[in-house]
Structures are given as C-alpha cells and as structure tokens.
Amino acid sequence: MDQEADMGDGQLSAQVGFRRRSTSVSDDYSVQKTNDDATECKFAAVSLNYYKDDYLKRFVLACGEHKFHRDPEISRGYWARVTAIRSIVDAFLQLSAQVGFRRRSTSVSDDYSVQKTNDDATECKFAAVSLNYYKDDYLKRFVLACGEHKFHRDPEISRGYWARVTAIRSIVDAFLQQVGPSCQIVNIGSGFDTLYWRLKEANARFYKFVDVDFSSVTAKKIHQIRKPGTPNLVAMFSEPPREAEHSDLHAGDYELIGADLRQPDELKGKLELASLDFGLPTLFIAECVLVYMGVSHSGRMLAKLATWFNTAVFVNYEQVNMKDSFGEVMEKNLQQRGIVLPGLTACTNIESQKQRFLDNHWEHVDVWTMNEIYQKKLPQDEVKRIEAIELLDERELLTQLLHHYCIAIATKGIAAKYPQLKCFF
Q: Which residues line the annotated binding site for S-adenosyl-L-methionine?
C-alpha cells in the first residue's frame, strides 16, 4: 500500500511539473517569438522605405524563416510606432541637454569663472606692485601660475587695488595690535593672496592663519608654495608643511584648506581639521567673495560663523550701490566675461550690506564706500604718493569705481571683551 502511494505521489508530481513547464517554458517561448515577429514586421516596413534603419538587417537574419512582406496596415502601424517613440526620445534628450547645461552653467562653469577671477585679481595686484603702488615681495611667486600675463592695468584699477590692499591691511594690523597673539585670521576665498607672508615679514603674531578657497585653487597654491624660488615661502612656516588630499596644507600657524563655502558642514569640518580654536577672537576676511554666492548660501555661512565663534570680526570688501546706471554697466561688463553675481541683491546699497549681517546673528556693522576710505581713512601722504605714479585721464571714473565698492566690518561678541575695537580706522 505504501509502494502504491509512492507511485501515485510520483505520477502526481510529474503531472504538476509538466503543467508548470507548460505554463512557464512554453509561455516564455511564445513571448520570445513575438520579438522575431516584431523584427520581421519592422524589416518589412524598412524594406519598403517607410522609415530608415540600416542596423535592423543585422538582427533580422537571426529570426529564422523570413517572411518580409506584411500587409500595408501593419507597415503603417509600425512606422507610426517607431516614429512616435523616436520623437519622444529626441524630445527627452533635448530637454536633458538643456537641464544639464543649466546645471553646468550655474555650478561647474560658474565656479570656474569665479576661480578665474583669482587670476585676474593676482595680475591686477602684481601690476600695481610692479609700479610701486605698494610692496609685496611674495606675489611674484603666485602670478606665474596665472597663465598668459598682461601685467599692465589702467591707473584707476591700480589705485583701486592699492586702496583695497592698504585698507584691509590696516584693519588686520589694528585687530592684531588690540587683541594680541591669541587670535586667528581666516581668509575666505583667499585665492593666491599673500597676506600671511606679509604679516610674518612684519613679525606679526597669531595662533592660526587660515586660507580657504575651492580645492582646485588651493591645490594650485600648494604647488606654487612648494615650488623652489625666492623668497622661500615654506621657510616662513612655524612647522614643516604636511599635505593632505592634494588640496590642504597644514604648517603650524598656517593652514590652507579647500572647501566649498556653500556647504557649511564641509567648511566647519575643514576648520576643525585645521585645529582652529572656536573660542579665540577670530578675524574673517572676504574680498569679493560673498557676491559670487547666492544670498541664501552666503547668509547661511554668515549665520553659522556667528554661531560657531564666540568672538568674531568679519571684514567684507565687495560691490555696493549696484542699482544705479554705473552699477548696471559694471554688471553687464562682468556678464560679458561670463561672470554672474548671484549675491548682487545684498549689494544694492549701504543698508543692504549692513542688513545681511544683522539678519544673520552679527551684532554690529559699519560700512564705508571705498570713496570715503580713500579720501578720509587712508594716510593722505600715501594717497599723494600713489597719485603721482600715473596720471588719470578722468578722475571721475576713479570716483565712480570707488563709490561702487565698500568695506563692511561686522562684529559679534566684541563690544564687551574688546571695547577698543569699536572703530578700526
């Protein structure tokens, strides 16, 4: 009885297995055969020039017995099917290309344009240094990395760069003098700026000096720093330099870090790797940096810095009064060079420059146009000296340029601890 049961179970299993194969293997085979039929139908239409497909013949030969003629209704139907699908694919690819271009134009290519402004600023500074507007023995070590060299600039540009460099340096010197050596300086969007070496030459003392920029810029700067030459840049570090990730350099009192300022978490992580002390008085410098960021991005960064650091000063050199006719001409000229200014709304006037800091946890802000600084804040004997270097065709152009740039100084936690820092000029 048990043997018969076993035989019955075996027959049942065989029947079930056969049914499973008949509903899977044979059905799958039928489905696969429809591919042969579709290929032959398409080839029939192609053979009568309903549409062009030079590649189909490479596959139709694999379809077994060939019956290339199909009824006209079938060929017209396949022409409509193939043509409709192709038009949808073409439209999708065109849209994807447009979206991709927009993404590249607002990220990769724009970032590249912003980074190229570093080369222009370095060459402009070198043109001024070459004519003895001011002294910078270290700049020549970086200008050679800027590609094709056009060192001459119009006198208005050289005077503007002299005023910018001199004003920033006077603020930094005041900060160091009044706070003392237990402090930090963070140069945001530093490019090839040489402030660290100029300060060291003057025997300035500080805990940390940090240069921050895109990693592609900092990698180039590391290459130039390490390159043999005079003066020896490496010899001025307080410790032998250690390189990390090809874009970061750690050298005791000097730190060079690559970071995207639009990503606060990335920035904070890099500042921590640079061993910054978030409790020490810290001076941030940004020269024509925030304007290249969207207002939401720059605002978020400013708010984070004010939150992370207990005692801080932020010095911002940037465009201002950009809504008048001269400002609009400036903007158009930059656009023609492929440079877009996403943060321009904060550069409308003095008040908008102040408000951007007050809205992001900074306690006090002073703003001056470079015209005011040039005429009233900088040493007038030096102004006379540099004005004798080159003659201006039109002084009005210089006045207009200086009227459309400003320096803002924002502070947080300074008033109580360092009341003497109320005014840097």
A: 164, 189, 260-261, 287
